[in-house]
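## retry 2 of 3
previous attempt timed out at serialization; input unchanged, resubmitting
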Amino acid sequence: MRSDILPFDQALRDHYVEFRADILSQIQERINNGETGTFSFQLTTPWQLFDFENVSGRHIERGEEIFSDHKPLENWYYAMGSFSYTYGAEVTVTPTSGGQWQVTINSQVHVFDRYNWDSQKSTGLAGATVQDIELGRLHQVGLAKEYEIWGRGSIATETFTFSP
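## retry succeeded, writing output
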């Protein structure tokens, strides 16, 4: 998914920078409050929205074929539309010599989407504009089905020395 949707990959990288800063802030706070031994904690970011409406910095015009040079991106767009993602992490902090701390962050990305049809939305499909309410009728008569998508990335481990 990340290799197919490069703007999503970049959004994840940017979000991880903020997430890591939050982790370091929590570590610093615990040390400032007198923590002296090994400690662990879990942290999760708020869910974020990834929306294809602004992929590659340009708005998708209804009915416009903008994915002609990148078929995987088009497939993800039609399969998921916008979707939500979050980071979760297990953090372990261990004191080392000289007042430094070894930090290990095991983080994982989670993705969620409920593919359903919203009456106020539409999309371009094969050169025509199709209203979501029309697609929703297909669900109501049993010719289509709404579905949920759940996924998670591999656990990424980062270990480094922290100096408060």
